[in-house]
Amino acid sequence: MVASRAITMVRMQETDLRTPAAGWDIHCHTRFSDGTETPDTLMRQARDIGLHGVAITDHDTWNGWQEAEAASRAYGIPLIRGTEITAHVDHTSVHILGYLYDPHDEDLAAMFQRTRTARFNRVREMVERIHADYPQMTWECVSRQVREGSQTTIGRPHIADALVALGICRDRTEAFSTIIASTNKYYIPVPSPTPLEVTRTVKKAGGAVVVAHAGDRSRNRQLLSDERLEELIDAGLDGIEVYHRGNLPDQRRRLKDIADSHGLIVTGGSDWHGAGKPNPLGENLTSDESVQRLVEGRALPVL
Ligand SMILES: [Zn+2]
Ligand SMILES: [Zn+2]
User: Fold this and answer.
1) Which ligand does the CA of 95 lie closest to?
2) Digit-coded pLDDT (tens) for 97-125
3) What is the tally of structural domains in the chain?
4) Which residues are found with C-beta within 5 Å of the ion, ligand 2?
5) How confident is the model over 220-276, as pLDDT tens digits?
6) Please, what's the b/e burial string for 93-109 (b: 16 or more CB within 10 A of its CB; e: otherwise)?
7) Ligand closest to CA 57
8) How many helices, marked H, and strands, marked E, lie in the chain?
9) Which part of the chain is the Polymerase/histidinol phosphatase N-terminal domain (predicted)?
10) Which domain holds residue 239?
């Protein structure tokens, strides 16, 4: 009896660490940052695979929203407008998902502008460093990989794509683990706001805040600590992305326990990048109930 109850409990624990079978994919990238597809393609594919809705979350920008809004109406797929915002603390890179905030909020617009300018200057400088050893690698090669011109948030993936186009690297993964790896001499860190600054700014602009893939050991040698997470919770953090391919079971357990004990929303997302990453759309999902809690009372409605 006792043994069978123990088995049931283990099964339950395993089950709640798995993504919901149906729901919303609320972590998706398009050509407006480092994804390879348009917002229109995102919405069409979402309809084709039967998602209940999607969020567009390009890095440090809302430039893709307009196209996504039109596609949401055309395909009848509900849309959450969002952004994945780059932050940094304690030598740890942290990604914050902000949803349904007022894009005209001055502090928020200024924060995005600072990050985008810093990213642009940093990529230019990294390209110059690489050029010194690989003369064929130039700024023009990187520009050719930027699909929406000045509307695109430029980052390391665009350098990777240029290295692949030149035949220096086989694919993005190889580029990220060799030439543009954070341990390599060509690497320059992005000057970023802290997760606490980002959380406060998005909350002030009426948005919902979710910390993305905080248990992904492949991104950081040192993960965002419980203490730092508590700080964000005190500042009004709404949710934690538990269902993400980078969060392995032990980290899913840790993050889910923190979310449950503070009454936070548990979310999931594929981190879809089109052909830019292997993650298929809809690979990880957020339940309808969690989405309902996430979107309630925000500056913008779900479309
Ligand atoms: Zn991310
Ligand atoms: Zn992402």
Assistant:
1) 1
2) 999 999 999 999 999 989 888 888 999 99
3) 1
4) 84, 271
5) 889 999 999 999 999 999 999 999 999 999 999 999 999 999 999 999 999 999 998
6) bbbbbbbbbbbebeebe
7) 2
8) 11, 7
9) 24-89
10) 23-116+194-295
